[in-house]
Write a structure and sequence with these properties.
Layout: H1 8-20, H2 24-37, H3 43-60, H4 67-80, H5 85-89, H6 98-112, H7 119-131, H8 135-148, H9 153-164, H10 171-188, H11 195-207, H12 211-224, H13 231-243, H14 247-256
Helix pairs in contact: 1-2, 1-3, 2-3, 3-4, 6-7, 7-8, 7-9, 8-9, 9-10, 9-11, 10-11, 11-12, 11-13, 12-13, 13-14
Length: about 260
C-alpha cells in the first residue's frame, strides 16, 4: 500500500532523507508541512532543532570561521530552544578569543538574565569570566550554577578554582567545594576519574601549605591527565616536594613544568 502523505512517519522519513543529503531547506519545509498537519506532534520541532544544530556544526568546521554566520545560527537555535542545555552548550565553541569570545560572553550574559535558563548557562559564563580573570563575575556565575543544580560537579570544581584566585583567596571554602565536586562525580560515575578535580584539590592544598596531602591528588591527576595539560601539575608537585625537602623529585617535576 502507498504511504499516506499526511502520515506523521511519512513526513519524518521524507525530512530525514532530505537532511541526510544536506538539503536543509527542503527538510525544513517538509517539517513545517508536517507540523501544520500535526501541530501537537513533538517529533517535528525536535527534527527542526536537529537540522539547525547540524547546520551550526557545519559552520564550525569551515576555515576561517565566519563569526557572524555562526552567531546568527546560534540565535536561530536559541529562538527554537532557549533553555535547551544542548543548544546552550554550543556557545562554548565560540569562547576562543577576540571578537568571538566577546560576543559569546554577551550572549551568555543575556541568557543568564532569564530565570528559566539552565545551570549550564551560568557555568559557561563563569568559565569565560575566569578566562578573562574576571573573578567576581566568575564567582557569581558559578554560585548561581550550583544553586540551580547542586549536583553539577564541574561547576563545583570551577567554583573551587575561582575561590583560590580571589583576593584574598578563600582556600578553606575552595577545598570544601572541590571535595564536594569529587564526591558528586564519584556518585554519578564511580569508575570515572576526574583528573582536573584532583589537580584542583592538590593545588589548593599546596596553597594551604599542606604539601604531604597535596602530592597524593596531584600524582593521581598526572596518571589520568593528557600530557599536554600536565605542566601546572608538575609545577605544583615541584613546589610541594621542594617544601618537603625532596630535592630529587622537586627537580624532576621542575624540568617537566
Amino acid at each position: 500500500a502507498l504511504s499516506d502523505p499526511s502520515d506523521i512517519r511519512h513526513h519524518l522519513r521524507w525530512a530525514s532523507a532530505e537532511a541526510l543529503q544536506e538539503n536543509d531547506e527542503a527538510a525544513l519545509a517538509i517539517v513545517a508541512d508536517g507540523e501544520a498537519l500535526h501541530p501537537n506532534e513533538e517529533a517535528f520541532p525536535k527534527m527542526r532543532l536537529e537540522i539547525h544544530l547540524r547546520r551550526f556544526q557545519k559552520i564550525l568546521i569551515v576555515e576561517p570561521l565566519d563569526i557572524s554566520e555562526a552567531f546568527a545560527q546560534l540565535e536561530v537555535l536559541l529562538a527554537l530552544a532557549p533553555a535547551n542545555p544542548q543548544v546552550i552548550g554550543q556557545i562554548a565553541h565560540m569562547s576562543g578569543s577576540g571578537e568571538s569570545r566577546v560576543r559569546a560572553r554577551e550572549l551568555l550574559t543575556r541568557l543568564a538574565e532569564n530565570e528559566s535558563t539552565p545551570a549550564l548557562t551560568h557555568k559557561l559564563l563563569g568559565d569565560m569570566a575566569a578566562l578573562d580573570a574576571d573573578w567576581s563575575l566568575a564567582l557569581a556565575s558559578y554560585e548561581q550554577a550550583v544553586k540551580r543544580e547542586p549536583e553539577f560537579s564541574a561547576a563545583k570544581n570551577n567554583l573551587a578554582w575561582c575561590l583560590t584566585n580571589l583576593t584574598p583567596p578563600q582556600l578553606d571554602r575552595a577545598l570544601l567545594a572541590v571535595d564536594e565536586a569529587i564526591a558528586i562525580a564519584k556518585r554519578q560515575a564511580p569508575d570515572r576519574i576526574q583528573p582536573n578535580y584532583l589537580e584542583t584539590r592538590g593545588q589548593i592544598l599546596v596553597r594551604l601549605g599542606q604539601y604531604k596531602e597535596a602530592v597524593i591528588p596531584l600524582e593521581q591527576a598526572l596518571r589520568f591527565m593528557p600530557e599536554k595539560l600536565q605542566k601546572n601539575v608538575h609545577s605544583a608537585l615541584a613546589k610541594a616536594y621542594r617544601a618537603m625537602g625532596n630535592r630529587s623529585l622537586a627537580e624532576t617535576h621542575h624540568r617537566r613544568a
